[in-house]
Structures are given as structure tokens and as C-alpha cells.
Amino acid sequence: MVTRERPTLEAVARRAGVSRATVSRVVNGSTTVAATIRDAVHRAVEELGYVPNQAARSLVTQRTESIALILPETASRVFSDDLFFPAVIRGVSIELEAANKQLVLMMAGSAASHDRVERYAMAGHVDGVMFASMHGADPLPGALARLGIPVVCSGRPMTPAELPVPYVDVDHFGGVAAAVRHLVALGRRRIATIAGPQDMVAGIDRLAGYRTTLRQAGLAEHVTVGDFTRESGIQAMRRLLSEQPELDAVFVASDMMAHGALQALKESGRHIPGDVAVIGFDDVEISRLSDPPLSTVRQPIVDMGRTMARQVLGLVAEEPDVPTSVVLPTELVVRATA
Amino acid sequence: MVTRERPTLEAVARRAGVSRATVSRVVNGSTTVAATIRDAVHRAVEELGYVPNQAARSLVTQRTESIALILPETASRVFSDDLFFPAVIRGVSIELEAANKQLVLMMAGSAASHDRVERYAMAGHVDGVMFASMHGADPLPGALARLGIPVVCSGRPMTPAELPVPYVDVDHFGGVAAAVRHLVALGRRRIATIAGPQDMVAGIDRLAGYRTTLRQAGLAEHVTVGDFTRESGIQAMRRLLSEQPELDAVFVASDMMAHGALQALKESGRHIPGDVAVIGFDDVEISRLSDPPLSTVRQPIVDMGRTMARQVLGLVAEEPDVPTSVVLPTELVVRATA
DNA sequence: ATGAAAGCGCTAACAG
DNA sequence: CTGTTAGCGCTTTCAT
User: Fold this and answer.
1) Contacts of residue A320, Cβ cutoff 8 Å, sequence gap at least 6
2) Residue A53 and residue B59: Cβ atoms within 8 Å?
3) For domain B9-61, which CATH number applies: 3.40.50.980, 1.10.10.2840, 1.10.260.40, 3.40.50.300?
4) Cβ within 8 Å of B, A 7-36
5) Position A2 pLDDT exceeds 60
């Protein structure tokens, strides 16, 4: 592969018979250039097939025109049949596209990749960074923010708020409360839950919502924990079933897990929702395709992505009044399982 | 957001009491540096929180250590419930991760984003480029190759082979032939097809496979065309049903379309596979989850991604014997629909 | 083994 | 309106 010499500004300038500065002005669309010269430059650019070298440009402008979305997960997890990530990415893409910024997607599921991503962001490869699906108290967002890089998280960060990072999240608590109250109103009394991973805010907040609401209703809680995957939902449901065979409802902290739970319930011969009512959380496609269609708590995932993107873009552009954090509403969607 | 000054090599050098050159050597792991000096430099780096500026580095090394995957589709399409793209991305990620390169994912579904992506790649933002899901005779791969940028396509490019771009593809023809022969062996005689988009090699080749095999069997063909989405599968199946109500089998060029076709068939009261046998293509998750589980032609999508990634990495590293193009096998998977 | 110096290709004052 | 000039932060000969 012969790395053919790329023409430089210098070459274009010579060809057009002007200075480098003038070529730079034309290329960057300055209006203060005479039409004839501008045309000459354009012609030279065309003839030479000139494309500006981004490294050189970034070196002086301190801008890269691209924004990173960091997902601290393995690629296999991000691109499984769980449509949570895709929805976030879609939302982000829509906004970045409109702003004409390049999205740089980075998976950081391993320690090695986490380091690489860190260096990448710190090296000034991108103008801003978004995080989604954070686990535990990841120090990276704070570290980047301290470096002066605009950072926004999807999901309230669990870091001690020494340096608060703006975030966008949804009303986990409210959504879960609505779901559990719905089950109670249905007359269910032995309501278990399959909680999400307790190193993630979404997992923690949804479990808190379940506990609080159940306590208010004067009912006993029954908790088991999964990791948001379908497989963990199957396992968790089996566990629940063996520990408390007479349960009559289960709130599952994600639709993927709920899908697994449905399967485990059917295997055990339970009728849904006759014997056991089920409500999930997310409202991703699978919940409509499942059999029967899953009742769930809808969260506006695409909007989370969009909002997050708008926030970083605002920070990058140093707009004065970018909202630091926003919490989007959730909504109970009743289908066939509860 | 105060863009705190980032320490430079210069700063580190001053602090460690050495020259910039020495710091550079240490940072880049040169072995020809005295241990005491090396330690002093490392300490200074640590204390200042120094991170090399990638733009400056790229400017001189002409390397960015990142590789792009370009998908000429909208983000909504890439991140729908069609798991084709995710599988490719997964494969690519695995290899890039192992090679410690950064993956830059770029969607180019609109003319504007296509342009942006082109400039991005041409500007030397990445060391190599992969394409997946190409439509028509996109000039971009050839253009980049001509610039000396290593390029690999997933799917045989439709460009006139003036400058042949290496590619990885699967044996569409063989897979379809197996599927159609299977239908014939089952005794089906009125075998229709829902073909893929005819601006894509996968669409064209699969249709060719259907036509040839049917002709060999002495049967009449019946073709309608979709665009690989579920919705188009529904529409196409309805069309087929109204044009030839007595059809007894249909080969569908993608599982997503087959899933839609299944739905349309059920709506029309057809029994599957009793009245109509169905075979799809891809073997993505949905084909196992559909009701009944779909017979399909399996293509090794993740392997395509991996292979493609290995090819670019080889080209970037200027390894002498990188295979220019490879065709992976496909395999008929018989489940419940045929 | 280390330092000095010369750029990589571009933008942005500043003059003119 | 255009050209001159001075770097941006780094790597890399070439001396020492």
C-alpha cells in the first residue's frame, strides 16, 4: 500500500500563486477573499485533491470536531440483542449529526480498553465525552472533567461529588413505584423483584423504588439480583420460584431480564398473568414481541441520548446556560402481563 | 468549563531537568535511557499528569492508532433490532481490541454525513478504513485506497475494478442454492422469493442464487423485492400472496424480512410450514425467537467482522502477505419453517 | 546516553 | 484584501 504523498497547503498555495494564509482562509470559508483568488484556490485544491490534515489543524485550533461516547462494557454486551445501547447511540447520533460532529464510539469493557479509552480522551482526541452504562464509582468522568474536557453522563454518577459531573437520567424511582402500585391495585400481595446489578445507579434506584413502595403498602419484600441480561433473568426467576413458590407477581428491573423471567415462569407451568403478573422496565422492542407482550415501565432512552449529546455540545461550545443535569420522566405501560 | 492548560513535553523536561528528546524517549519506551533519568522523567510525568498530545504526535508520525468502520446507513438502521450490524461490529471490536487500536464507528446514512465521513477519513484521522453494508457503486472505498489509505470492504464492492479493494464476503450463492434445493427436495414447486435490495451485492447475489437454482430444477420463478427490513418483508409477502395465492414456499433474502413474511403469512391464514415453507438468510437471533423458529442460511457475520479487521490491520502494518479477499462459507440451518 | 535543532501542516495575529 | 511570521507539541536525525 503506497502511502501517496498528500498535497499540503503549501502545494496548493504555490499552484494557485498565493500565500498559505490565503489558501487557509479559502478552505475555511473566510468571506474576506477576492472572488477571483478564491476561485483560483478552489481550482488548485480540486486539481491537487487537497484535503486538510486534521492533526495539524487540531494542533493549533485545539479542536477535533469529534465527540466520544464511552460505554464501559464489552462490545458483545453493547451489541447483543439488548436494544438499550443502540437506542442511546441512536439518540446521540441524531444530535451530533445535526451539529456536524463526528461520533467516536468506544467500548471499554476490559481493564486494558478502559485504559486505552482514558488515554485516548486525555490525549485530546475528542472535544467532549459522554458516558453511558457506568458501573460503580468510575473515576474516569471526574478525571476527564478535571482536565477541562466537557463530560456528561447518562445515569447519575456514583462518584463522591467532589467534582460534580453533569448527567441525564430518568425517574427510576417514580416508574418503579407506579409499577409496584399497579401490581398492588391488581390485588397481588406476594410481589417479588429481580433487581439490576447493584453497582449501577439504575439497579440501585429501581430496587429502592421497589422497597419503598412495597413498604408503604405494608407488604413483604422478596429480592433477587441479576445483571440486566436475559440469562440472568432466567436464573433469577428460577431462584425466586424455588424460594417462594407462591409468589403472585414480580417486578423485573429490565425488559431483557423480564423476557428471561417469562421463559422460566412458563417452564415452571405458571400462567401469565393468571398465576404470576410480570412488569419489566425499559420498553425496548423485545417487550412488544414477547409472548405475552410485556407490561413495562417506559423510559425515553433515545431522548436520554439526545439530551446528553445536547449537553456536551453546549459545554463544548461554551454556551452559558447548559442545564447541568436533567431527569426525564418514565411511564407505566400496561400490556398483557400485568 | 475551564480548559486547564495541559502540561507539555517541555514542562516535563524542565521539571525532570532533561531535554524534550529524552522525555520523548522515555514516554515512548526507548531502552537507551539511563535508569535514573528514566525514573526521574516518570516521576515528573506522574506529578504533572502529563498525557501526550495525539495531534502533535500524529502530525509527525503520520499515525493515529485508530481504525474506522464506516456504515453507509442511518444510525436508526444500524441500531434497529436487526442484529446484522451489531454482529459485524462485535467481530471488528474483538480484533481491534487485541491489536490495541481504537475503533471509530461512523454512520453515513445521509449525503451530508457521507461527506463528513469522507473528509474525516481523508484528513488522516484514521490509519485504515473498513466498510460494511455498501450500496451501489460507492466511490469512497476506491477514493480512499487511491489516497494510500488501507481499505477493506465487507461485501464484494460493486465498483468497476479499476482499483480493486480487498474485501471479505460470504458465499451467498452457495447458501441460497442449498436453501432452494432443500425446498425442491421437500416437494415444493411454486417457490417464490423476497429478494434484497438490488443496489447491494448481498441482494443481487442471493437473487442470482435463487434464479439459477430454480432454473436448474425446471421451476418457474416469482420474485419480489424488499430492503432487508421487517416492514418490507411484510409488504413483500402480501404482494406475493395476492399475485400468486397458491405459492407453497418462499425463500426470503434476510431473516428480518422473513420475520415480517411470517407475520403476513399468518395474517393470511396460511399454516407454516404446512401450506407455505419459509427459509430466511442470516441466522440472527430473531430467527430462533420467531414462531415457529425460522429455517435459514447461516452466514458467519462475526467472522466477517474479524476477518475484515485482520485484513486492515495487516495492511496498516504493511505485512506482506495479507490475503486480498476472502469468501467465507454459508450453511443451511433447518428449523421449523421448512 | 543525551541534547540541539529541524521540521510535521496548519492557523492566527499582525502588518501592509 | 493578502502576505509574513510565529508557533501549536511532538518525534527524530545528527552531533556530542
Assistant:
1) none
2) yes
3) 1.10.260.40
4) none
5) no
